[in-house]
Specification:
heterodimer, A: 318 residues, mainly alpha, MetI-like fold, 2 domains, two-stranded antiparallel ribbon, 4 strands, 67% helix, globular, disordered N terminus, disordered C terminus, B: 335 residues, alpha+beta, Rossmann fold, OB fold (Dihydrolipoamide Acetyltransferase, E2P), 6-stranded mixed beta sheet, 5-stranded antiparallel beta sheet, 8 helices, binds adenosine-5'-diphosphate, binds magnesium ion
């Protein structure tokens, strides 16, 4: 009986009531934060009239119109003109003709999406690469004023990046980096690199230096030892850092609005500009946002094993 | 293999003198053990030889060649670290093959395989080669760590307390194995430890080291029988040597100036005697040893007795010393 007693009053084991209320709170919180996502996802499958009907439709007949509109531009035509055309080519053509319109061409969504991919992954790769090398140097070498340098690196994050938007805008215009992918990659890298250095330094500090020393005694150069011994063991930290950098670069809106308008525009400033006849094309916006979530979702799921260990910031490594 | 010579090296870390003017010559094929407590400068000495630290003074030669300014990879030494000796992300095989696959060596893969298998046989771990290195027991990990050094044939093996994290039984096994392997290979080894049994059983010569200085160097027997100071005498022998003021016990003729007498088991003559000046406190049966604790006035003397001794707790005994170790007031050996 003492066993029953000891679990009932255990200090480490939460009571089942505590567990249940904790679970309830977590589920409630998850539902609240995910409600807008469900709404966006659902809107992507509505027709334009359904998307703005009041009261809002919870149950509706799904339609591909949002996705069709997202990827196309359309022009209005007379019924006679449309009837004179041959049979519709594919679902989108059919859906469009039902609204007395014809597909005029491809929209800018696909190229903007590709821009987002290039800029977000490019800047993440650069930030993590620079970060891992500098973190290694700070961790292993005697660098004069190392602490001050680290503080300086961190200080670049002490104000919101957008506070320097105007100087950056002017500077970019002057040196021709406005509305270029390179410009956006450099900008996001600059914002992310301080986070990367600090996160990765924590992880590399925890890898015993004896590992590299052993490799160097065994005939490896420091660079070889770095790639063969340090990088594999820092994998968790690198994955976690990469996700944080990617999420920032992928979602960044303010700089993207300010600095890109055509050539290098990313998806976030593009999506809200999708306008249909008579106002916002909400189904297309919903569809564009849903698709926009996919890459980050896939990346996070692929690395989630590392992420779970990574967000404890080295406290529970191995 | 080659002879290694350390001349007057010193290394200071800020205020700590980790190694001070240490000189040591190691002959080709010799097993030298540095014995000292934690913080004595053992690891630092090995790191200086390996080139992981730069000496403030002094020089090191390996096979007659000066090592000053040479990178660790250029020194042809192998190092077994006290900790963190295996790469957790590699299998046992890859750990053992790691030194052979270095860009400095570029040994063909079939030779690597052969060498790794040989060493695995030598260390009796061939069935573990495919395991992840994190899935090994402590003893197996240490074998692999030693194996990582043995796959190469360097001028000298540097070993930093490789057995200290193991339990007593494993330590005893590996001690014997390491000695056997060293003799088989004719390897030159500089081994550091705080364990006197490791030093006594494996070394050709022991160097007793404390606070960065080499205090005495000699064969295990020499160090045990002829310690040059109280410090060295206390480092060796179990139970620890008894230190008594001169004249407390009858001990024959002592050299002039003797202040302290060091007495181990072999220096005592103990007789049961009803009016003896000492009494048996208790007898401790440790299995392999029977320790006799004797009270002599305020003092406690610990020595060994034969298992068939008829002494028991409370017996009065008379103690006599036979050619004990004599030390001056400053702790120097007199005779
Ligand atoms: N990298 C270092 N920085 C500062 N002090 C050190 C460093 N390495 C060793 N020491 C100091 O030098 C002394 C000798 O250390 P060490 O050689 O590791 O001793 P041992 O291996 O015999 O235990 C110790 O007091 C230790 O604190
Ligand atoms: Mg040490």
């Amino acid at each position: 009986m003492s066993i029953t007693l000891s679990t009932a009053h255990s200090v480490v084991e939460p009571s089942s009531l505590a567990k249940r209320s904790a679970g309830f709170i977590v589920i409630l919180y998850a539902l609240i934060t995910m409600a807008p996502l469900f709404w966006i996802f659902a809107t992507g499958w509505k027709t334009p009239p359904d998307s703005i009907s009041y009261p809002p439709k919870i149950v509706f007949g799904p339609s591909l119109e949002g996705y069709c509109n997202l990827f196309t531009t359309r022009t209005r035509q007379t019924a006679d003109y449309i009837n004179a055309l041959g049979p519709p080519q594919g679902t989108c053509d059919e859906v469009t003709r039902r609204r007395e319109m014809v597909i005029a061409g491809a929209s800018n969504y696909a190229p903007r999406f590709v821009n987002s991919l290039i800029i977000a992954f490019g800047s993440t790769f650069l930030a993590v690469t620079l970060g891992v090398f500098s973190a290694y140097a700070f961790s292993r070498f005697k660098i004069p004023l190392a602490d001050d340098l680290l503080f300086f690196i961190l200080s670049t994050r002490m104000m919101p990046p957008i506070a320097v938007a105007i100087p950056i805008y002017l500077m970019y215009r002057e040196i021709g980096l406005s509305d270029t992918k390179l410009g956006m990659i450099l900008l996001y890298t600059a914002v992310n690199v301080s986070l990367a250095v600090w996160l990765l330094k924590g992880f590399i500090d925890e890898i015993p230096k004896e590992y590299e020393e052993a490799a160097m005694i065994d005939g490896y150069t420091r660079l070889h030892a770095f790639f063969k011994v340090v990088l594999p063991q820092a994998a968790t930290g690198i994955a976690a850092t990469a996700i944080f950098c990617l999420i920032f670069a992928w979602n960044e809106f303010a700089f993207a609005v300010l600095l890109t308008s055509g050539e290098a525009q990313t998806a976030p400033p593009f999506i809200p500009t999708i306008i249909g006849e008579g106002g916002m094309d909400w189904p297309a916006v919903g569809a564009g946002t849903t698709l926009f979530l996919i890459p980050i979702l896939v990346f996070t799921i692929l690395l989630r094993k590392h992420l779970l260990r990574g967000i404890t910031f080295g406290a529970v490594r191995k | 293999m080659a002879e290694v010579s350390i001349k007057n090296i010193s290394k200071r870390f800020k205020s700590v003198m980790a190694v001070s003017s240490l000189s040591l010559d190691i002959a080709d094929g010799e097993f030298v053990v540095l014995l000292g407590p934690t913080g004595a400068g053992k690891t630092t000495t090995l790191r200086l030889v390996a080139g992981l630290e730069k000496p403030d003074e002094g020089e090191i030669t390996i096979g007659g060649q000066g090592m000053a300014g040479l990178a660790p990879s250029a020194r042809d030494v192998a190092f077994v670290f006290q900790q963190y000796s295996l790469y957790p992300h590699l299998s046992v095989f890859d750990n053992l093959a790691f030194p052979l696959r270095s860009p400095a060596r570029r040994i063909p893969e079939n030779e690597v395989k052969e060498r790794v298998n040989q060493v695995a046989e030598l260390l009796r771990i061939p069935h573990k080669l495919a395991n992840r290195s994190t899935q090994l027991s402590g003893g197996e990990m240490q074998r692999v760590a030693i194996g990582r050094a043995l796959v190469r044939q360097p001028s000298i093996y540097l070993m930093d307390e490789p057995l200290s994290s193991l339990d007593a039984k494993l330590r005893a096994d590996l001690r014997l194995e390491l000695k056997r392997i060293q003799e088989e290979l004719g390897a030159t080894i500089l081994y550091v430890t705080h364990d006197q049994i490791e030093a006594m059983t494996m070394a050709n010569r022991i160097g007793v080291i404390n606070e960065g200085s080499l205090i005495q160097l000699g064969s295990p027997r020499d160090i045990y029988e002829n310690p040059q100071s109280i410090y060295v005498a206390q480092r060796l022998g179990q139970p620890q040597i008894n230190l008594l003021p001169a004249g407390l016990l009858p001990s024959g003729k002592l050299p002039a100036g003797t202040q302290t007498i060091g007495a181990r088991t072999e220096h005592f003559d103990i007789q049961k005697k009803p009016n003896g000046e000492a009494s048996v406190d208790w007898i401790e049966h440790l299995g392999d040893q029977n320790r006799l604790h004797v009270n002599l006035g305020e003092r406690r003397i610990t020595t060994l007795i034969a298992p068939d001794s008829n002494l028991k707790s409370g017996d009065r005994v008379a103690l006599k010393l036979v050619r004990p170790l004599c030390f001056s007031a400053s702790g120097e050996r007199l005779g």
